[in-house]
Amino acid sequence: MCNIKDIKEEILLSKRIGLSFHTSPDGDAIGSALGLLNALRYLGKDSYIISRDVIPDNLSYLSLANDIDGSTVEPKANTDLVIILDCGNVERISADLTNYNGKVINIDHHISNDKYGFINYIDVTAAATCEIIYLLVKELGFYLKNEIDNQKSHVEIGSAIYTGIVTDTGSFRHSNVTKRTHNIVAELVEFGINSSKIHSNLFDNKPFEKVKLMGHVLSDIKLVLNNKVAVLEIEKKTLEEFNLLNTDTSDVLSVGLGIKGVEVCLLLKEVDDGVKASLRSKNDIDVRKVAEVYGGGGHIKAAGVKQKNVSISEARENLLKILAQEIN
Ligand SMILES: [Mn+2]
């Protein structure tokens, strides 16, 4: 793995920097992009977001969140560096890089990473890409000195980084949490972030319709494979009924995984051209391996895959077939 100093050097050498992340960005993708964007702007760097996606509602409290508006989908003229955050595969980047010939830096923590950058900083021991971004912004000069304690810049950068760490660790519950994770968070608290407020923004902010949708989906939950796998399904027409076509529904997974004896929770969601599946694992079952069979990826305990042109039941049976092998 390259040195974080190499990334700093490239940033300082660059005149115009674009930042992007994986499609359907989560708290870590958005947090790492906005944490770094805020830092770059404070350094006076001409920097901007490249994204097909728009900021999800529950992340709109972050500084510069409005820059993620889906309007810039490819690098602007004279961009000499593009940094891709939290994204393992080129196909998943929320930016169109077809006409871009400049440098790409890939900063990520996924085990399945194609190393598509000219610099690839892939740290699979990082609980979140935001952990790496913390090391980077520190390298760029945003560490704590007494005189700059609780400065606005630190609160803005720190809140974005904290958001990514909280969301990718399930609020510090997952086994990806390390001593370093807690050390970084301790330093972010010294930056002056309001961690309790961030948790409220993230989790106590659901639209009423979404809670009703979760109830509807949970009322049909099934246990299969000796009650070790919980299966949840959301049809497109249900999302239309609740007027929630573009809402993130992944938080219902933790309810399925919370069932006694369940090892894996599988959520299937019907989309225009197929079925998206999200998988979460409680202990040792590697759901990334299962997702990879159908072209998906992720982490051992959290993975996703989209199967094109299949029905929800076909998608379910495909994944259960592979899961059955992993469980026995
Ligand atoms: Mn991540």
TrEMBL record:
<protein>
    <submittedName>
        <fullName>Bifunctional oligoribonuclease and PAP phosphatase NrnA</fullName>
        <ecNumber>3.1.-.-</ecNumber>
        <ecNumber>3.1.3.7</ecNumber>
    </submittedName>
</protein>
<keyword id="KW-0378">Hydrolase</keyword>
<dbReference type="InterPro" id="IPR003156">
    <property type="entry name" value="DHHA1_dom"/>
</dbReference>
<dbReference type="InterPro" id="IPR051319">
    <property type="entry name" value="Oligoribo/pAp-PDE_c-di-AMP_PDE"/>
</dbReference>
<dbReference type="InterPro" id="IPR001667">
    <property type="entry name" value="DDH_dom"/>
</dbReference>
<dbReference type="Pfam" id="PF02272">
    <property type="entry name" value="DHHA1"/>
</dbReference>
<dbReference type="GO" id="GO:0008441">
    <property type="term" value="F:3'(2'),5'-bisphosphate nucleotidase activity"/>
</dbReference>
<feature type="domain" description="DHHA1">
    <location>
        <begin position="228"/>
        <end position="327"/>
    </location>
</feature>
<feature type="domain" description="DDH">
    <location>
        <begin position="19"/>
        <end position="165"/>
    </location>
</feature>
<dbReference type="GO" id="GO:0003676">
    <property type="term" value="F:nucleic acid binding"/>
</dbReference>
<dbReference type="Pfam" id="PF01368">
    <property type="entry name" value="DHH"/>
</dbReference>
<dbReference type="InterPro" id="IPR038763">
    <property type="entry name" value="DHH_sf"/>
</dbReference>
